[in-house]
């Protein structure tokens, strides 16, 4: 009888002549690691049938509005790993993190200082920031795309009670590299748990929560685009974010400020939160 190692060697030998050199590297490594995994855990036929049924359910849950495979990659830490190995740099730029499924390509353009939330979306927050070079110079005319969930933990695209474009917007930085808007303090929220990945997370004894964050995509001519978040330093789940997206340099303290909140966000409120973040582009 041939041994598991001999079988793996035979399969690898059939992939020595894959025409595309990069595909050859990838498929041979994938076969090596998949076979090593099945050999190491002595995978049973029933377990592999359950694995295939799980992947089939992930496919059935996926359509053009919801991608359960991305959620699977996110919750297994693979999305963050790919981001790390693909972007590894020590040039001093702001670190990136997961894009997530709720970015939209055509968020409304907004003026600096705009209100992007409704009173019922949460506690008023003045969000300010600058876009800078690695040498600390301001980058004018950079595009800062911002999006976040409401206090109910839902993005506009998930919530029929929000109008499209609520809690999101694209801003252009001024001459000092600055931008700002009025929004709400982010809260932790669970990733979707109604599909097979939610069942997987529960079966693994994990919680489905993301630490409170605001998403950003920052771009400017001549610089590498950045996809990242800022996290609230007081949030729960910073050390157990379900998609492993938290990085130390992205955590910000939120300050309490006395001052006037724009009428559209909260009438007669004279106290709000303030969060600031600089984004350094390579
Ligand atoms: C998000 O932060 O929007 C997100 C990221 C990964 C999976 C689900 C949601
Ligand atoms: Fe999010």
What's the layout of helices and strands?
Layout: H1 4-13, H2 21-41, H3 45-60, H4 68-75, H5 78-87, E1 114-115, E2 124-133, E3 143-147, E4 168-172, E5 178-184, E6 189-190, H6 196-203, E7 209-210, E8 213-219, E9 226-232, E10 251-252, E11 255-258, E12 271-281
Parallel strand pairs: 1-5, 2-12, 9-10
Antiparallel strand pairs: 2-5, 3-4, 3-8, 6-7, 8-9, 11-12
Helix pairs in contact: 1-2
This protein binds benzoic acid and fe (iii) ion (FE).
Can you tell me about this structure?
The model has no long low-confidence stretch (mean pLDDT 96). The protein has 282 residues and is α/β, with parallel strands linked by helices. The chain has 2 domains: 4-43; 79-281, Protocatechuate 3,4-Dioxygenase, subunit A, CATH 2.60.130. Helix 1 (4-13) runs antiparallel to helix 2. A 5-stranded mixed beta sheet has the order 1-5-2-12-11, with no helix packed on it. The protein has a 5-stranded mixed beta sheet with strand order 4-3-8-9-10, with no helix packed on it. It is 26% helix and 23% strand. It binds benzoic acid and fe (iii) ion. Benzoic acid binds at residues 71, 74, 98, 100-102, 191, 210, 243. Fe (iii) ion binds at residues 100, 102, 149, 210, 213, 215.
